[in-house]
Amino acid sequence: xxxxxxxxxxxxxxxxxxxxxxxxxxxxxxxxxxxxxxxxxxxxxxxxxxxxxxxxxxxxxxxxxxxxxxxxxxxxxxxxxxxxxxxxxxxxxxxxxxxxxxxxxxxxxxxxxxxxxxxxxxxxxxxxxxxxxxxxxxxxxxxxxxxxxxxxxxxxxxx
Length: 159
Prior knowledge:
This protein is mainly alpha-helical. The chain has four helices and two strands; from the N terminus they run H-H-E-E-H-H. Strands 1-2 form a two-stranded antiparallel ribbon. A hairpin with a 5-residue loop joins strand 1 and strand 2 (68-70). It is elongated. The termini are far apart.
């Protein structure tokens, strides 16, 4: 089996049409992955934000005037969680613009490559910024979840 694979690798070469077709499929897969990631970050951030608001509602008690009063401890943890969730959403929204700029830059690079093939070696800072925003948005979501969990542990009575 190993000999056959090695022989095939030596004899077979990918022609340009197959390369273009394969690259197009990989690009579509990559874009679908990014789309799923963006939807997941936005959905999870909004969901955890809604959960935390509902969770705070569990701590309502009647005050001396008869009005509902929410009594929680470590409210700073909840505020910090909300900030991280909001940052995750804002970074993802900013990333939509950054990704559009990255595509524009790639189109310009491809156009320049028609005149000079070395243009394909050009850096796309927008693309790098997009990856950074993806990472920061995911980290912000994780930190928000962590602070929300800490808040829940501080406020759920232990039997």
